[in-house]
Amino acid sequence: MNFHFNEEEQEILNMLHDYAVKEVAPRAHEIDEEEKFPMEARNGLAEMGMMGMYFPEEYGGAGLSYLSYIAVCEELAVHCATTSVVLSAHESLCSWPIYKYGSEDQKKKYLTALASGEKLGAFGLTEPGAGTDAAMQKTVAKDEGDHWVLNGSKVFITNAQYADIFVVFAMVYRDDYKERPYTNKDISAFIIEKGFEGFSVQGHEMKMGIRGSSTCSLYFDNCIVPKENLLGEQGKGFKVAMTTLDGGRIGIAAQAIGIAQAAINETVAYTKERVQFGKPIWKFQNTQFQLADMQAKVDAARLLVYRAAQAKQDGEPHSHLAAMAKLVASETASDVSRRCVQLVGGNGYSREYPFERHMRDAKITEIYEGTSEVQRMVIAGWLGATK
Amino acid sequence: MEILVLIKQVPDDSVEVKLDPATGAPNLNGVEAVVNAFDTYALEMAKRYIEDNGGNVTVATIGDDDATAALRTCLAVGAGKAFLIKDASFAGSDTTAKAYILSKAVAKIEEINGAKFDIIFCGKEATDFSKGMVGVQLASELGVGVATDVIAVNPAEGGVTVKQETETGYNVIDLATPCVVTIQKPDYDPRYPTIKTKMAARKATINEITAADLAVDAAKVGEAGSLTKVLKLYEPPKKQAGVKIQEETVADSTMRALAMIAEAKVL
What is the pLDDT of residue B102? Predict the structure, then answer.
């Protein structure tokens, strides 16, 4: 497998790197400390055309490769993990299912606005009682003839407060649900606009990491949804959700390796400056061997991430590859960022330095868009079915 | 309004460049070539000017094929056309020779564009050798007015009004067009390219102009046409470490300082 970027892609990545160094990195600390949504970067990325970079130009995208998009998620995470997830929730979780399952009208109306960055997207699957057990959706959509009526709620929704367009999931109501409980075959996907009657975004989760990202709950109180906003076929929503998450996981895995790489880069720089026992602590073999081990692990994880991205780009089965990439990358990020805090010592624990932020940011990559345990379930499912 | 922005490709000024002890020349290994920062401000100001008042921005540089990267960077952030002024005989030109070449190039580009330039924007200096001469010398060659250290350009009757930054404040100057302005950093930053402009710039044509196209006098370009010659580059001597006086009171510190000065027979 060849993961080289062509000259054009490399130029775009260099351009993004330049932007991230000058505009994203300097705000990362403030974004974290003040739980501040990275609005400047959200707007800057939109202006640059990064908010829909791998969608076709006819829908407002730039027609670049999926692998380049994943490299952008990674590069942004090197400088600010929050900014990376804003992009990835928007592009992987909201724009992609509309691109993949949406009607031509839906693509023209919603994908174009999302891919151009004019509108921000979010994805609503998780509920208080339906986390890993996503099929236990309690949100219900009732067919009222010329429209749908949604009732229920969603939690932990990334981008929620600032999003304009949401892809959400609900059970399609049927009269016999008491005798014959809902299953995942009753789930359908819907496109919700911020201003729909009966729809509201509330609360703000106080989080351990990625503190600048907006994580809120969605409420549907007799929310009126136009008939044409059903996304994909009725009853196929579970598939929409799962295939969307397959792609989303690659973006989160890229975020994880970005965080880990940032921790390593900054730890190498720090240990070259920090003098103990008469020499920079970088000179001690323990420091060098630990960082060498960490870099090898991050590079191994990166190859898994790029392999999954390439498979998705080539239209090959990638559910298990995405799960492996996310499992390894996220656990690597947590391990590496924790070890970097230890190498740096007291300053590693201080909020004046970025090391502890990387450790806090890394943890979420083991949890959202499927916990590490979910990734193991997906990988084991593939093993059981194919080996 | 037709605007020409003259740019220079320079080593990345965020990297500390050292002299190579073996050659005495700057060691530029691994140092990326970028568009001179003051030229990026000039281009941004020119672009804003035409966005507000209409017109076209053309960008040009003297350089070899490597300089096309700098021109493409400019095309990605607002320039409409790019010209590379390229000839082996131009090597070793000092600012006087460059101003002469540029004056010829201005006429040639005007002929190709089919329109005269109203304003020529230059950075106030390049970040490599910081001479700050070319813009003024070009104005002299062309026989037009010039304002240096400009931070704003606005349209005015028969020309432009510019705001010039001085050490003590600002001057507001009316300039008849055509004219040359050399640009100081304004209170905004140059825009970033977008994916689309970057991709379009990759495919854009870079027009090349040679000495033959310009009909230059060979005696006025290159080393032959240069009035100055670089004899030697050297690093300034390192500053000696100072002495820190930190007595318990200010009076004691002062007395100690005076004693040291007396001891050194300075007083």
Answer: 97
What does the pLDDT read at residue B241? 78
**Residue B188 to chain A, least CA–CA distance (Å):** 14
Mean pLDDT of B176-200: 96
Between chains, do A47 and B194 touch, taking CB under 8 Å as contact?
yes
Contact criterion met (CB below 8 Å) for B153 and B160: yes
The pLDDT, as a whole number, for residue A165 is 98
CB contact under 8 A, A12 and B202: no
Architecture of domain A122-235 in this structure: Beta Barrel (2.40)
Give dist(CA A49, CA B244) in Å, integer: 54
Residues of chain A below pLDDT 50: none
Stretch(es) of chain A classified as CATH 2.40.110.10: 122-235
C-alpha distance from A43 to closest chain B C-alpha (Å): 12
- pLDDT bracket for residue B242 (50, 70, 90): confident
Q: Are B195 and A62 an interchain contact pair (Cβ–Cβ within 8 Å)?
A: yes
Q: Is B199 on the interface with A (CB under 8 A)?
A: yes
The residue ranges of every structural domain in chain B are: 2-220, 237-267
Q: What is the DSSP code string of A354-378?
A: SHHHHHHHHHHTTTTTS-HHHHHHH
Residue A284's nearest CA partner among A325, A343, A338 is A343
User: What is the chain A residue with the closest CA to B72?
Assistant: A11
Question: Which helix (DSSP H) or strand (DSSP E) does residue A17 occupy?
Answer: helix A7-19
CATH number of B2-220: 3.40.50.620
**Is residue A94 classed as helix, strand or coil in its secondary structure?**
helix
Distance from CA of A26 to the nearest CA of B (A): 15
Contact between A113 and A190 (Cβ < 8 Å): no
Per-residue HEC secondary structure of A223-241 comes to: EEEEHHHEECCCCCHHHHH
Catalytic positions of A are 369
**Does domain A7-120 fall into CATH 1.10.540.10?**
yes
B23 pLDDT higher than 90: no
Provide the token pair at A51: 């908010």
pLDDT at position B140, please? 97
Sequence ranges of chain A with CATH classification 1.20.140.10: 239-386
Chain-chain contact of A48 with B199 (C-beta, under 8 angstroms): no
B243 or A2, higher pLDDT: B243
Q: Which chain B residues are closer than 8 Å to A8 by Cβ? A: 199, 202
For chain A, say whether B202 makes contact (Cβ under 8 Å).
yes
Residues forming CATH 1.10.540.10 domain(s) in chain A:
7-120
pTM: 0.88
What fold does the segment set A239-386 form as a domain?
Butyryl-CoA Dehydrogenase, subunit A; domain 3 (1.20.140)
pLDDT at A193: 98
Inform me whether the C-beta atom of residue B244 falls under 8 Å from chain A C-beta atoms.
no
